[in-house]
Amino acid sequence: MTAPAPVIRDFGGIPVEFRRKRVRYLRMTVHPDGAVRVSVPWHVPDAEAVAFAAARADWMRRRVDAIRRAPPPAETHFETGDTVRAFGETLPLRVAETETPSAPRIEEGALVLPVRPGATEAERRVVFAVWLRARLTETLSRLLAHWTAAMGEAPVRWDLRRMKSRWGSCAARKRFIRFNLQLAERPPACIEYVVVHELAHLSVQNHSPAFWSVVARHLPDWHARRALLNRSPTPSP
User: Which pairing describes strands 7-11 and 14-21: parallel, antiparallel, or unpaired?
Assistant: First the structure.
């Protein structure tokens, strides 16, 4: 059975992501970066999952507030024991020196970073950045293929670039979309929101009620997804 896309709901200003999983019981987790996720068994109705989260709202808020008040994490030097951000997860890093080239991989909840023996910090950063960009490219390619079809749009041209003021931009006349590389740090549900947001600009080139109506037609939970996306100072669409 294919898992449906995660659903984001707002609980007093805290976005909560609900994910259907092969688990026996409902479970709420507050991650080290403040992200809140609820694992929902296949057989549990949506209303029961929401009630489960609501009953734990006070505990959730205390945990999230404590994380937000905590000092920022130390700078990553890409050494074993550091942490990196990838697709909404904060992953411990495990550097693996090897003479045999291979791609980074997530293993037992950690990111294994294969590098040549004696690799410098700058070289380790490049290995991670290349992997992260490739993963984001795969994710965006899949989402664009799905949503152009779902929204009745022809394929578009697109690229990735580090952007200072936006998560994405759309040149509707040229049918060209640009995405911010920093999306690779955000949860998949947020990346999907940006894809739908930019594709909606192909039909409405502003942020009028008509535009948001297009977004809401395809992503009814867009408000919560946008709130989750914009938890950090990085600018938004």
Answer: antiparallel
